[in-house]
Amino acid sequence: MTLFWALAAIVFIIIEAVTPGLAAIWFALGAIAALVSERLGAPIWLQAVWFAAVSLVTLALTRPLAKKYVNGKAQPTNADRLIGTLCSVSEGIDNIRGTGSVFADGKTWTARSTTGAPITAGTVVKIDAIEGVKLMVSPPERE
Prior knowledge:
Blueprint: H1 2-18, H2 25-39, H3 44-69, E1 86-94, E2 99-104, E3 107-113, E4 124-131, E5 134-138
Parallel strand pairs: 3-5
Antiparallel strand pairs: 1-2, 1-4, 2-3, 4-5
Helix pairs in contact: 1-2, 2-3
């Protein structure tokens, strides 16, 4: 079992090394705990319990922090200031045909309708989001 737990720890560490973010470090720690318990003479069932317990406890304790600080950090850009502003449709927007553009902040942007409904040229629209280099727009709500 020494070889099994050592190989398991190595495999989990390799998986961790080749994947972005945290993916398998918890199981590597569990395998190391099981390896230590095996070296101290614990039966196989207790080694498995140590593996599962350490893996689950470290996962439960560190996963929320890892998700917050390691994965999914959005980098705001200057273009984010456009969200919520109004602009004019310069080329009719049709999501099915993949056409459409708007003039916003002194630049022409590719645009798509947030609702999926076509929007004619000359319409004033509100910028809802930015997806890559496309602005997602919709007609502003009437007051």
